[in-house]
Amino acid sequence: MELISRPGWIEVICGPMFAGKSEELIRRINRLEYAKKKTLVFKPGIDNRYSADEVVSHSNLKAKSISIKESKEILDYVDSSTFAIAVDEVQFLDKEIIYIAQRLALKGIRVILGGLDTDFRGEPFPITASLMTVAEDVLKLTAICVVCGAPATKTQRIINGKPAHYSDPIIKVGASEAYEPRCRHCHQVTK
Ligand code: ZN
Question: Among 11, 89, 96, 123, which one carries the catalytic annotation?
Answer without folding.
Answer: 89
